Every structure is written in structure tokens, then in C-alpha cells.
Amino acid sequence: NLNTTVFAYSFIKSVDKLMSTLAKAKQDESNMMSFSKTLLHEVISMRLSPRGYLREVILVPEVIRLSGYPHLSLWELLFQLAVRYDDKRRRRYTYNLQICTLKNFESKLLQIFGLKSRPKPSSDIIIPQYMIDLYNQQISASNNLQFANSKAASANTIRSFVHTDKPDSGSCNEDSCVRMEFNISNIPEEEVLTAAELRVFLDKHISANNITRRKILRHKIEVYEIMRPGNTNVDPVTRLVDVKHVKTKNATWVSLDIHPAVLKWRKTPKQNHGIEVRISSSKLSPSFQNFKHVRLRRSVSLSDSEWHSQRPILVTYSNDQIQSRTKRASNKNRNKKKKKKKRKNRKNKKKKFKNGCSRKPLYVDFDKVGWNDWIVAPSGYNAFFCDGECHWPYADHLNATNHAIVQDLVHSIDPRSVPKPCCVPTELSPISLLYIDEHDKVVLKAYQDMVVEGCGCR
């Protein structure tokens, strides 16, 4: 519950003092800052009442920020702090600081996610099925991004891009050839691009020709980088980037490596003239010339949903070079026995010390923050947190350091000299987030140190 309740009690005693302070402050506008701080001090000093109604005044950052505004009047400040007084009878008033708290919560999360502002995606954005499949693959693999492609193995960020059609000219004007351009300007400069692929969908070919139907058709798919654009009568200058020989027995996606071209576009964006994709029959199927089942262009028969799920996409794999600061729990399967033993120890310790250091549930709900319009998955996640006392002697599962043990010994001798060791996370794991960024691009990213896996005394 993000509602913060501020109780103000017996405020009338301080009104005269505050009003006199305001009168002095109005004479010298530079004193308004000190007046604001005085006001905050007066409100904080009211935290104890005769009946104990007011135990604490919670000042969120948004409220504290108000003390830095010299032009706010006394009553504006009082309103922001939800201070009310009814001279007929004493009442408790509740002020909902949900909006202020949400703003601060939102800004902190955006900072963690590496976003400058909250994305506001267009309503017509379609999430490629490939990105959804990748996300499902990652959450089943403990949120650690892993790929068969060795170049993409070190990536922790995946982005998908849809193309804009370039005007066809010269010999590229049939179903067997298409020119595409991708805007990749939203990839941050600090990220290291490890791989880039063009994904093309080949539908299962159904032919009316019995002879063709019995054969397994083979195609050659070539992708060229456009080095210099052409015009109506002249073909562009191109260089071959990748080629694949594929069978059309079953519907499948074909991956073409265009990493060299994308690297060049990042270094020199002005040289991004796009790519040209060509389809031709292999030597084993020389007579076949119908390539409409290769989804390079949208045919009249395709619906919007079919085209969006089958259109070509550029997928980039990169690494933001942000390292995990804490030991990660990544070998879950290999440590099953060790985990069981730890759980037994925890169970025994909980019986002995109910308030001992342990992991507690903490669910972060993106829907409640209002982020469900740009975060595709998950709708929220269990972050957990560590809480509890560090009791001597320490159990094995608390992973106490030698320093923590020494600190506890010193504290037991002289409690005023040093505090007791604290219950903190000792093992953290990442989460995978599928979202739409501020440039309307679909991103799958692994964020390190987001879930507490283990707690200890440090």
C-alpha cells in the first residue's frame, strides 16, 4: 500500500509562531528558504501528542523538495503537508501522498532500467512472436540470457527492428527481391554489439503442380549491404553479407548474419543505406520461380495479424557492460542438494530465532505502477528482501564473514562502539524484462541483481 498517512495534532499552538516567522520572511524574500525549513521543523516537532495519536510524520522526498521553493506561501506548504486544524474539535486528517510516492518510485525504477523517461508507446505496436518466444525461453533458463550463437552468448540486451521499404529500382522489382532500411539509432553508444541477424519467414509451400508438390524445394537467400544507393535506371552498389540455402518442406524462419553491416551503420550512420534481399532457386530446383511464400513483401491475401507475425525483422544482440556487483545464484540445478541442506538449516534456525535474518517476500507489481502499457512481460516479479536480527552463533546459511563475526564480538563487549552486523542480501539473481522503449522498439533485457536469493549477516 503506497498510501502514506500524515497525522497533524495540536497544531494550533504553533500557528502564532509560524505567522510571525512568515511576516519577517516577507520583508526579506531571501529568508523564505529558512522559513520553509522552520515550518518543516515545527511540523516534525509535533510527532508526539498527549494521546499518542501522532507518532510519526513521514516526509517523502517530494514534500521535502517543497522547502526549496521560495515563492510558496504558508498555506500552500501546509496543504502539501496535509496539515489541518479545526478549532471546534480536534480531528485527525489523512493526506494521500500516493502520487508523490509513485513519482519517486517510478523515477528510481526507470533509473535502474536505464531509461531517461517513461516510455509512451504507440497503440499500433506489434510485439514480434520471436521476442515473446525468446522471453519465455529466458525465464525457463533462470533469466540468464543464453544463445546458441557464440557471438550472442555475452549479450544481455536484445532489440528487434522492423524495416521501412526502400523504393525498388532496376532489377529489384519482383517477389524475389526487396530493399529494406532499418533505423538503429536508438542503440546506446556504450553498448557493445555482439551479433545482428535478419530473420526471414518461409511459409510451407503448397503448389497446384503435382510434380512440384512431391519435391522438396530449395532456395538460395542472399542479403547484400547497399554501399551506394541507385536510382530509377541504375542499380545500387552492393556487397554480399550472407547467403543461406534452405528447404521449403516446412514453415520456418531463416537467420541471416548481417553483423558487419550493422557495426558499420553504428560507426557511420550516414552510410546506412539499407540492405537488399534476393531469393533464387537452387540448382536442385531450377524451374521454380514463385517466391510468394517467402515473406519479404506483404501479399494481398495476408491479414494484418499474419503480416505482423511473419514480416522480416532485424534482431540485435548487445551488452551494456554493467557487471553484477554481488555473487549471483546461477547454478540452481547443480546446487539442489546444497539448497535442500540450507532450507533444513533455515527451518531449524527459524524455530530457534523467529526474528532471525531471513528472506522476506516483496512483490513488485508493474500494473499497480501503471506500467502495463509499455512493459510486455512480466506483470510483476518477486524481488524479496532481507530482514531480521543477526544472532550469535551464526548458522551456516547466513554466510557471515570474518569481519561480521569480529564486529559482533566487539559489539557484545561494547555495544556503543559499533553496531551489530546487518542482515543483507548475499546472493542476487537477474530478471528478464520484455518492454517497449521510448523509441517504440521492442527490447528484451536481463537486469542484474534484481532478486534476492539468499541473505546473510555482514
UniProtKB/TrEMBL annotation:
Keywords, sorted A to Z: Developmental protein, Differentiation, Disulfide bond, Glycoprotein, Growth factor, Secreted, Signal
Ranges of residues in domain TGF-beta family profile: 340-458
GO biological process: cell differentiation; positive regulation of developmental process; positive regulation of multicellular organismal process
UniProt-annotated location(s): Secreted
PROSITE patterns in the record: TGF_BETA_1, TGF_BETA_2
Main subcellular localisation: secreted
Record bears the keyword Secreted: yes
GO molecular function, one term: cytokine activity
SMART domains: TGFB
An example Gene Ontology CC term for this record: extracellular space
One Pfam entry name: TGFb_propeptide
Compositional bias (Basic residues): 325-353
Gene3D superfamilies the UniProt entry points to: 2.60.120.970, Cystine-knot cytokines (2.10.90.10)
Region listing for Disordered, in residue ranges: 319-353
Protein family: Belongs to the TGF-beta family.
Protein name, entry field: Bone morphogenetic protein 2/4
